[in-house]
Amino acid sequence: MTTVHPDASIADASRRMRECGATELLVMSEIHGEARALGVVTAQDIVLRVLAVGLDPAVLTAGDIARA
C-alpha cells in the first residue's frame, strides 16, 4: 500500500494517489524513531469529506481526515 505523511495536504495526497494508481493511502508517521500507521485516506474520503463540503484540499491534511 502506498503511504503518505499526516502533514501532506489533501491536494498532495490526491496527486500521490494518481501517480501510483492507488485509491487509498496509508497515513504513516514516525514516533520515537518508529514508523506508525495512523490511519487510511481513500479517494472516497477526499471526495465526500473534503470536496463535497467545500473544504480546501490545499489546506486540509491527510492526518486531518485519516480514519483508523
| Total DSSP helices | 3
What is the CATH superfamily label? CBS-domain
The total beta strand count reads 3
Structural class: alpha+beta
Using the 3D structure, state the CATH architecture: Roll
- What Rg do the Cα atoms give? 11 Å
State the major sheet.
3 strands, mixed
Q: Which CATH class applies here?
A: Alpha Beta
- Form type: globular
Q: Secondary-structure element sequence?
A: EHEEHH
| Unreliable residue runs | none
Counted up, domains total 1
Q: Main sheet: which strands, in order across? A: 1-2-3
Tell me the helix content. Answer: 25-40%
Mean pLDDT: 96
Strand content: 25-35%
CATH topology heading: CBS-domain
Distance between the termini: 15 Å
Q: What report would you give on this structure?
A:
It is a single chain. The protein has a three-stranded mixed beta sheet with strand order 1-2-3. The protein has helices at residues 10-20, 43-51, 62-65, and strands at residues 3-4, 24-31, 34-42. 35% of the residues lie in helices and 28% in strands. It contains three helices and three strands. It is α+β, with helices and mostly antiparallel strands and 68 residues long. A hairpin with a 2-residue loop joins strand 2 and strand 3. The chain has a single domain (3-65), classed as CBS-domain. The chain starts with a strand and ends with a helix.
